[in-house]
Amino acid sequence: MNVKIIVRGKAKGTVLCAENPVNFLGGIDKTTGRIRDEHHDLFDKFVGDKILVFPKGIGSSVGAYTIYSLKYNKCAPLAMVCLNADITTASGCAISNIPLVVAQKKDYESLKDGQEITVDAIEGKIL
């Protein structure tokens, strides 16, 4: 499937799908990589070493630093796939060297938890 590249890079890993938008500032523990928002569908799931698939980011622009902290603490996603790339997610991925792509809705919806994929944000493809 073809995707729009937001942050270049390449990663292979297991998909972790979120139904709800992700609030990086308040919703993820930056030291453990676990979703700490009790109302989120991924509550208590570990985002590290996964391909995080989610509709969009929400919340404060300071969430970009949370993404950077996740990377610094070695508990960041390998790559991110979303439907809408907000500025917080894009800037956080850019400063952290985490590949970020935007998928078309039909392709996005075909991604499933546990699926092994490669996000090629150099060629603009998910394999």
* Number of spatially distinct domains: 1
The backbone outline, from C-alpha atoms, is globular
CATH fold node name: Glucose Oxidase, domain 1
Q: What is the helix fraction of residues, given as a range?
A: 10-25%
User: How many DSSP H or I helices?
Assistant: 4
In CATH, the homologous superfamily goes by the name: Phosphohistidine domain
Describe the structure.
The model has no long low-confidence stretch (mean pLDDT 97). The strands form two sheets. The protein has a seven-stranded mixed β-sheet with strand order 1-7-6-4-2-8-9. It has a two-stranded parallel sheet with strand order 3-5. The chain is an alpha/beta fold and 127 residues long. It has four helices and nine strands, in the order βββαββαβαβαββ. It has one domain (3-126): Glucose Oxidase, domain 1 (3-Layer(bba) Sandwich). It has helices at 24-27, 63-72, 87-96, 105-110; strands at residues 3-7, 10-17, 22-23, 50-54, 57-58, 79-82, 100-103, 116-120, 125-126. The longest helix has 10 residues, at 63-72. 24% of the residues lie in helices and 29% in strands. Strand 6 (79-82), helix 3 and strand 7 form a beta-alpha-beta unit.
